Amino acid sequence: MGQDFVTYLPSEIIVNILSRLPIRSIVRCKCVCKSWLDLLVSPEFVRSHISKSVPGLFVFERDPQIKPYKFVEFVDELDPNCDERRWNVAFDFNLPFHVPVYREYTAANGLLFLWKPYFLIICNPITRDYITVPIPLETSSVPESYGFGVSRISGQYKVVGTFFKREIDTPQRAEVFRSECQVYSVGTGSWRRIASAGLLNYEYAYEAGAFLNGNLHWLVHARDLNGYPELISCFDLETELFSTSSPPPCDDPRGFRNLSVLGGCLCLCDNMGCEFLSEYEIAIWLMKEYGDEKSWTKEFVIRKMFHADFLGFLCPIKVFEDGDILMEVEMRRQLYYSNKTKSIREVNVSGSDCTGCTIAICYTPSFLSLKTIAMENVVSF
Q1: Between 11-18 and 43-52, two packed helices, what is the crossing angle to 10 degrees?
Q2: What is the pLDDT of residues 154-204, one digit of tens each?
Q3: Enclosing H/E stretch for 29
């Protein structure tokens, strides 16, 4: 058969082989022939690739002299000559709009949701297409947080917005907080208010919703007779119902607590700061059994020694096989913890000479095109 051997392979075998290639190689394969181009945009290939896709970093750099957006792949092996972790910039690119990546982001199946006031975007940097999501229904409330994900059963992609406002309770003559929730289903072009907003009477949420197992999660404070207890608010994207659970105990009320997803588990990072510099610690909690609040486990405790400047909202990005941890602090710089030396240092994951703010979020690439799931106007770039 010689050179024509590939033409005799069943399409499912070709899909299995191609879905294991690096991103750049897959893009090149689209140019081989029309049959491969059709195969690489098929739902079968998209599903196969998503199941095998390896998480990396989506990086945004505030430097006007370079392309600001990059996808960085992890290289787990250590360089035997310098004992340094290596990063591989798979590609860099510009977007046709300028939306800095802040804490207000979420991602699902390779689709990124980016937002700032009055500007909402869903984008796939791999397939190079995006849609602009309309502004939520008219509301006098202030945008508090957004979240983005896909429901477990129907596979519907949804944007969830939470809003709050301060009101005066006339009988009590006291200030109260009212909240509402709105949901945007991709493909419908419109927002819906959720009648039973589970965030009612919640004061605020710190960050965008952490997406895991078809649910969005927020770390919030609720106002009740006992003060301001901390809770985890969970929104089921399938049923569109809220529930609450308890976070792990707070060891230091003066620290910064941040909710995220790490290694397939719900993660709470407690960046503690005590009056004695030698007692600065980072505690990383994992919910080992999803949905079981009793399964919270303090998986890592990192001594910061005298690095008081590392105090702030901190998000673990990846735990490497040797126990090293890559983290993001205050959405502007990356920290690397060496399990061998028990030390923390600042790192540059982009490989550039950028001296400004660098933001990195965990991102799993896919070839899911918005054209297959959206009725809205999809724009290519």
Answers
A1: 40
A2: 999 999 988 776 666 556 555 666 678 899 999 998 899 886 655 545 544
A3: helix 23-29
